[in-house]
Amino acid sequence: MTAQDNQPRLFSGVFVRRFNWGLLLATLSLCVIGVAFVFSATMVYGDPVAGARRVSDLPPHLRQVLWIVSGLALALVLTLLDYHDLVRFAWFIYAACLGLLVLVLLIGAARSGARRWLFGIQPAEFAKLAIIILLAHRHGGRYAPRDLSSYLLDLGLILLPLGLIVRQPDLGTALVFLPTSLAILFVSRVSPRALLATVLAGIILAAGVLGLLLLADRPGLDEQRRARIERATGLSAYQRQRLLVYLFPERDPHGMAWNKRQSEIAVGSGGLTGKGFMRGNQNILGFLPRTVAPTDFIFAVIAEEAGFAGSMTILGLLGLVIAAITATAVACRDGTGRLLCVGCATLIFMHTFINVAMTIGLAPITGLPLPFLSYGGSFMWVMMASMGVVQSVAVHGRREGRSGAVRRRGRPSGFKRL
Amino acid sequence: MQSGKPKLIEANRILLLGALMLAGLAGLALALYREQVLRHSEYDVRHRRQSIRRVLQPAVRGRIFDRRGQVLAENRPSYCLAVYIEELRRPGPWRNTAEAVDRMLDRLAADLSLPREDSIEDIERHIRLRLPLPYLAWRDIDEIALNRLAEYPGELPGIDIYVLPERYYPLGKTAAHVIGYVGRDRPEPVPGEPFDFYMPEMRGRIGIEQRYDRRLSGIPGGRLIRVDARGYKHHAWEGREAIPGADVTLTVDLELQQVAESTIEGLRAAVAVLDVRNGDILALASSPSYDISRMSPAPAPDYWRELLADPGRPLLNRAISGTYPPGSTFKPVVALAALGHQGFDPYSSLYECAGSIKLGGNIMRCWRRSGHGPIALRQSLAQSCNVYYFLLAMEMGYDRIYQQAESLGFGFSTGVDLNGEASGLLPGPAWKRRRLNEGWWTGDTCNVSIGQGALLATPIQMAAFTVALANGGSLYRPRLVRQPAATDGEIMLSISWPEPGLQVVRDGMRDSVNTSAGTGNRARIEQWVVAGKTGTAQYGTRGGVHAWMIAYAPFEQPRYAVAVLVESADAGGGQVAGPIVKQLMRTLVQLDSSPGWLINGGES
Would the CB atoms of A187 and B13 count as touching at under 8 Å? Predict the structure, then answer.
């Protein structure tokens, strides 16, 4: 029997039966809603540009459509590709992302104080997927190493890109990166005690840095001591400033505090059913700053114009996406596939949770996009790619795969049905 | 199956994680319920309360005073109806919003019985260029409309009353050409300037308003004001204060200006009165004048048409922009040119005037057909003998005259602080070659020597020359506004003449006014000894004349210089311009002894 026979072909019976249609439907609904509200949030800029020749001339909602369509194509390729083949390149993908993260620090383009863009893409977004694939690769096999040195290697593999992301600084992405990695470790057979110890150590470290930060921030401190304490935090002046503004948004009354208050008002004034499509005053009158309304604060636009009903629809669809991925994970008979799904689900959840909590003023303003809804290319592609990986798990994951020597002996025949 | 394969990733941990995540989303849903449903009314109030308006604070334009502090130009409040277009935003392209605003204004126009002053194109331009700013649909609305608006039934979202300072000229036609007027300026956005909407609204169009626009206009400010849905203003939280424009004090004296204007009322004429010691312009009149109080913010269309159609060309400032042959008032220039000429003695050099001379085939005449007989410099000026100057000019050559006239400012604008000044014309061989491709003939020299031919001068030039003659050779820049630090005048050119000769020229001009044979004896007054020179300049081919007179006084210690021009006069300079000079001099005598005179101007 050849590998060809095991590959469910596009729209073959097996493919159709195994494909996670619910997931596709939920993501597509979110994308359509996203385009509509990006349109609502950006039409304030003026009339669409007539006779646009380049992508950058297109109005934002059409660019978003372009990114969705290209993202869907990418997802389709990844669906057809057996994720076992993808996972074989885990180290290569990881190394490439690390390289890009280093490069972005060296030559990246800075926007509003942070160096995140490299040739129009944000490598940090792709690094999230890379760490999911790598950790799934390391822990998915039946014979995954369980000793302490392996665990420490895991931590190193997580902290290396994390450090580079914090350097940009992109604290929002870092805030997603860590829980996603830890969730994979949690589900895999890593010792719960080691995991707990790591989390505690992390909390103590964070509390220590925070404490030093607050100490240095105390008024009436003499400058030399302040400088010493500030050095001890190991953070740059800009990072310290950003952190303090997260903690005390009122220190940036025209920036973050403004965004926070306006976003709260937008959500709250939406009421049960909202003010109607393209009728959100907060959005139209520019109280929600127009630079962030279609991106990080798209949820505020939706909540204002579609009300509680709208925000519940969004949360419901995102919950459906997470549930569908979890179902695929459980249905999968292969550790690697399960871990890939767990990673992707956690990634989507963390983005959703932090973004929505930020919109209603429960979390610091970190600048995280909302999956499938926020305007932006890099993140849309990452989301579509993770959906492709999950579908690949759904389609190809009904049998066990092995990395390394086990795989080379030939694949066990795929289960025709569960 | 699963339990039999202990090394497979456990499904229950995955399910636990999934459940945790869904619980997290449920938590968010609860929080959203609280914010959007339970606390909705609270947020709704906050939302209604806030609506930002950018309120422009126009800079109050500086006032214009005469030298003794009388107001020549000031500001009055004008009520405007402003529309905040952003608050009336309609879905879809901006065209929809523009149409909605247009319809609303049509309705308002009917309700307030105000005719529309704008069109949808204006609204669209405003949306394109200055969206955050209020759109002023009506400016300067009257009290009746204001009251109707205050009692307007129903809500008027996005509408407010704006108070703009409007320029106001209390004196109407007085000193119109000096003051000028302002007009509404359509501001263009300045790329890169975050406050590009803080542009001055009014621009000086002409006169002092134009020349000193930057000093007068100041810098407008703006504020962001939060208003609620009904238009109540809450508090301003950001902005820039307007910086009012600086006042401008002119050197002109209003009383003297009014007298000067009354002396030439009904004529096409110009008067300039200058301070001999520093070039300050004490009066600058041009007739006919126009009413600048009807020119701002834009000239009334029928008034504007009337002004343009008027054959007297009231918009023309004859004192600085009108160019005329100076006639005999140019003779002192020729006399001064002769002073340094070898062999010329101002006392004893005589020329025989037989009433005319023959030059080639032409006969050049003196105004007195019978001739003056043998005549010296002093008498030639007093009696304005033409033949004397023909012979003198021919003897010394044209170059000397040309150089003398050039160093007295002929052919150049004087640099007075008004735009649109003419430079006149000082013809010479080079000019004639260039313009007419002809050589310079002796006849040309003779013509220029009596201020005729192609020679052209403005009244302000003649006044500036008179100042230099009276003060002994300092050609000042005539000025309407004194720089704060500069009490001394600005000397443009300096020239010195041999003292005895200069005295003869001055004596000749004194005799012109103070002897019975003098041409300017109609300008004679009792209090001061006035020195002057009349001119009757022929123009065209139909025998029309312009009447001129230049004069200064008091003779011993000159303080005031006067130049008077009457266009197309029906008699000579002495008869027409003489009495005008007399009236001006009488006023000056009065003012000179009145308390407070020249206090603002400094007593140099």
Answer: yes
